[in-house]
Amino acid sequence: MGPTGDAGAPATGGKKAPAKAAARETAKKTAEMPVEKSVEKSVEKSVPAKRTAAKKTAARKTADGSPKPPAAKAKKTAAAKTKQSAPAKQSAPAKQSAPAKQSAATKQSAPAKQSAATKQSAPAKQSAATKQSAPAKKTSGGARAESHAAMVRRARKINRELAEVYPYAHPELDFENPFQLLVATVLSAQTTDLRVNQTTPALFAKYPTPEDLAAAVPEELEETIRPTGFFRAKARSLLGLSAALRDNFGGEVPGSLDDLVTLPGVGRKTAFVVLGNAFGVPGITVDTHFGRLVRRWKWTDQEDPVKVEAAVAEIFPKSDWTMLSHRVIFHGRRICHARKPACGACPIAPLCPAYGEGETDPEKAKKLLKYEKGGMPGQRLKPPPDYPGTPAPPLAGR
Ligand code: SF4
């Protein structure tokens, strides 16, 4: 480029040079003038523009708030000239704030929806449960998010509440010694304690000791225990366990789990009933009621009785095991029935995750209550003195 330009200069030099120089100067002056004027004009324009922007953006002051140098003013003027872009910028944070408000509203409405959805669960506890579920929702969800420690606290509270509801809880089989309790427990399989209690007076009158029972005529024994159902199988068990007591344990019921489960027809459940109620050895009795209720209460989701027993044993101290078993079974028989629990009349409803599985109408629920809670006779013909209900009647025709 240099050589080309240099070559051009001499070509345009000579006489014409002064005139061109003057023309250049004139051109420079005229070129500078509009620039200054345009700056002035733009500055003039920028002032009202800035004012307008300031008015409009009263809430969004500039980050530094300091006066801008002229150049910046000019830039601002350019920005102010495009007034449409300013609102666009304003609308951007406005749009951001709107969703923020919406999200806040949504956060409020979410628990509301939850509470509506969980209205079927325990009303009293619901407020607490709902309050807990709102933050729990952020993590992952409601009652399922209950920690093990919280479940243990709730389980122990249920036990305390049940202790107040059933201070008279007891084994519902009539018995006067370990042998009678062992026999009655074997007979209670697949039938009610009431039916066993109505059957055993005649049985124990005929066969008061293991030796007597071991020597029974099978057909006679079967006939005696027929009201309890499955009488042939049960007769075989009674004959076998009586003979084992006579032959292996000196006619006495052993007081250990290991020995008891060696007896024909005696499993862990029967053994724990005998140990807990005839020997004072703490034990958890997992029968159909116990298993159903502890699963409803989310103490465990195990179905296998041995696993249920192990899970519950971890929640409660040993000293609670026997009475806990009685209370839970009492509750299952009186209020928390298998098919239609009386939730509307349940004193532990606020602690129960399964509230609503049964009848919630208080009046209708009240009609579902059984035994002393429903104003009916109990299961025992000879209940303990503190039992508030009436004794069961003897078996009709016997
Ligand atoms: S009756 Fe209803 S509220 Fe009460 S323990 Fe049973 S399922 Fe829960």
UniProtKB/TrEMBL annotation:
Its cofactor is [4Fe-4S] cluster. It comes from the Bacteria. PANTHER family: A/G-SPECIFIC ADENINE GLYCOSYLASE/ENDONUCLEASE III, ENDONUCLEASE III. The keyword Metal-binding applies. Belongs to the Nth/MutY family. PROSITE patterns: ENDONUCLEASE_III_1, ENDONUCLEASE_III_2. It comes from Streptomyces tsukubensis. Keywords: 4Fe-4S, DNA damage, DNA repair, DNA-binding, Endonuclease, Glycosidase, Hydrolase, Iron, Iron-sulfur, Lyase, Metal-binding, Nuclease. InterPro entries: DNA_glycosylase, Endonuclease-III-like_CS2, Endonuclease3_FeS-loop_motif, Endouclease-III_FeS-bd_BS, HhH-GPD_domain, HhH_base_excis_C, HhH_motif, Nth. Residues 1-150, 370-398 are annotated as: Disordered. Residues 187-334 form the HhH-GPD domain. Gene3D superfamilies: Helix-hairpin-Helix base-excision DNA repair enzymes (C-terminal) (1.10.1670.10), Hypothetical protein, domain 2 (1.10.340.30). Residues 1-21, 79-140 have a biased composition (Low complexity). GO terms for biological process: base-excision repair, AP site formation. This is Endonuclease III. SMART domains: ENDO3c, FES. Its EC number is 4.2.99.18. The gene is nth. DNA repair enzyme that has both DNA N-glycosylase activity and AP-lyase activity. The DNA N-glycosylase activity releases various damaged pyrimidines from DNA by cleaving the N-glycosidic bond, leaving an AP (apurinic/apyrimidinic) site. The AP-lyase activity cleaves the phosphodiester bond 3' to the AP site by a beta-elimination, leaving a 3'-terminal unsaturated sugar and a product with a terminal 5'-phosphate. NCBIfam families: nth. Binds 1 [4Fe-4S] cluster. [4Fe-4S] cluster binds at residues 336, 343, 346, 352. Residues 22-44 have a biased composition (Basic and acidic residues). Residues 382-398 have a biased composition (Pro residues).
